[in-house]
């Protein structure tokens, strides 16, 4: 349950336009999921995929901002 609360906080942060907070929350949830479910459990893998997508999206946004600032 605690892990899912962290996931919910991450999703809420992402919806609020705070991707860095989202990443921190999802990383915390992922540690809990790995410990509780194991690395190969479908919920753990789904959370890892979500985290990867958020990180990639955040990196792309940062790169666009850097490219447009010069």
Describe this structure in words.
Helix 1 packs antiparallel against helix 2 and helix 2 (19-36) runs antiparallel to helix 3. This protein has helices spanning 2-15, 19-36, 42-69. It is mainly α and 70 residues long. The chain has three helices and no strands.
Find the count of extended strands (DSSP E, 2+ residues): 0
Give the number of helices.
3
What is the CA-CA span between the terminal residues?
46 Å
Decide which structural class fits the backbone.
mainly alpha
Which geometry do the CA atoms define? elongated
Mean pLDDT, all residues:
91
Briefly, what is this?
The protein is mostly helical and 70 residues long.
Secondary structure layout:
Layout (H helix, E strand, L loop, with lengths): L1 H14 L3 H18 L5 H28 L1
Helix pairs in contact: 1-2, 2-3
Name a few traits of the molecule.
mainly alpha; single chain; 70 residues
